Amino acid sequence: MRSIAGPSSSQRPRHDPYSMSMTTNSLTEAIQLEAVDLGRTDHRRSLLALLDEYAQTPEGGSNPLDPDAKARLCDLLASKPHYAGWLALRSGGQAIGLINCFEGVSTFRARPLLNVHDIIVSASWRGRGIGRALLAAAEAGARARGCCKLTLEVLEGNHRAEAVYRACGFRPYELDPAMGRAVFLEKKLD
């Protein structure tokens, strides 16, 4: 794997794709990681297909994506300058993995951070290093943006994903051990 080139500070981040090789069924196959380009129809289709696949798993809530959300999502992401995503593609262009991230701010460090909002690996490709490669792409992108850290949430029952995240250096968040670890909460507004 080669490093992802960083963006100039005056443009929306774009990252050079890079390749990795993996062995599948005794064959070596090249997997390409590309920054999501929401101006490309194939990237839009791939993003929506992978998100929909994930949404239908127990980890994703076991329901397909709402058709209205699917119709609006790519344009919404394209309008957000703090969005960054990468696709893992087979040599023929089939998308097998996706990571969606958003830049935020660490107020205590007065530096940007990159939050991993979604990471999806197609079911038949799990356990082959695709998730680690997507996390590495996000880390390289975060470093290129000057971020001080990556953050993510994981469901406590998703042990396989948590093991991958821990192997990649992620740890539960705490400031003072006496106060305990951070808990992720939500309040739905509609």
Structure, explained:
The protein is an alpha+beta fold. The protein has a single domain, classed as 3-Layer(aba) Sandwich (Aminopeptidase), CATH 3.40.630.30. Helices cover 27% and strands 26% of the residues. The protein has a six-stranded mixed sheet, sandwiched between helices. Strand 1 and strand 2 form a beta hairpin. The chain is globular and about 50 Å long. The chain starts with 17 loop residues before the first strand and ends in a 23-residue tail after the last helix.
A few lines on this structure:
The protein has 190 residues and is α+β, with helices and mostly antiparallel strands. The chain is built from four helices and six strands.
Helices and strands in order:
Layout: E1 18-24, E2 27-35, H1 41-55, H2 67-78, E3 83-90, E4 95-106, E5 111-121, H3 130-144, E6 150-152, H4 159-167
Parallel strand pairs: 5-6
Antiparallel strand pairs: 1-2, 2-3, 3-4, 4-5
Give me the oligomer status: single chain
Number of helices: 4
Helix coverage percent: 25-40%
The span between the termini is 43 Å
Q: Biggest sheet: strands side by side, in what order?
A: 1-2-3-4-5-6
SSE pattern: EEHHEEEHEH
At CATH's second level, what is the architecture? 3-Layer(aba) Sandwich
Average pLDDT number: 87
CATH topology: Aminopeptidase
Question: What general form does the structure show?
Answer: globular
CATH superfamily: Gcn5-related N-acetyltransferase (GNAT)
Please tell me how large the radius of gyration is.
17 Å
Question: What can be said about the biggest beta sheet?
Answer: 6 strands, mixed
**Count of distinct structural domains:** 1
Low-pLDDT parts are: 1-17
Strand content: 25-35%
